[in-house]
Amino acid sequence: xxxxxxxxxxxxxxxxxxxxxxxxxxxxxxxxxxxxxxxxxxxxxxxxxxxxxxxxxxxxxxxxxxxxxxxxxxxxxxxxxxxxxxxxxxxxxxxxxxxxxxxxxxxxxxxxxxxxxxxxxxxxxxxxxxxxxxxxxxxxxxxxxxxxxxxxxxxxxxxxxxxxxxxxxxxxxxxxxxxxxxxxxxxxxxxxxxxxxxxxxxxxxxxxxxxxxxxxxxxxxxxxxxxxxxxxxxxxx
Length: 237
Hints:
It comes from Novosphingobium panipatense. Helices cover 28% and strands 24% of the residues. By secondary structure, the chain is an alpha/beta fold. It has a six-stranded mixed β-sheet, sandwiched between helices. A four-stranded antiparallel β-sheet has the order 2-1-4-5, covered by helices on one side. The chain is globular, with a radius of gyration of 18 Å.
């Protein structure tokens, strides 16, 4: 993170797959630490592609991206995994490991990072309690409801305390009440200092976080790249 609170900066970024036309074009914007962003747009607008750039699953076809003060375009591939650990991801399809319990799914990022079983047990139990699943720690994903699976996915995404959380349509597979609860969880994380980016087509959700900022994609372009996105960071309480 830079001194002015910049966490990510895109400079004239474009993305195409193969020889097809660009799915993202001329993206220039800055995301600041401690802010809550909603990414909206019609189906096919490029939301998932933009998220893939944000969590470094995809390199752009052109332009520059700076994350946490580092030029990630020139960053050696061997150093990308370390950078990726600073970003938590909640996928639309959850991507839980079927043969692992809720506890083991959440513990997975800490185990990959080399934490001992003794050191990770407390944090994993605490965060499962925080998302309301203290009594479902031993349950495999197949026995959990859609909302419970989503909360496991959220817990896994934030267990390593990432600087930024990226969520792709996180409320698309749950009912209205659960969607509101999930957004409250994201808002709580944001108030603790995590920058949050939520892609959604549900415009009703935007009112759930009154001081959130809105990024609107239209056919691969941001409709207002120089407006709200330059708003200063939220003051943490």
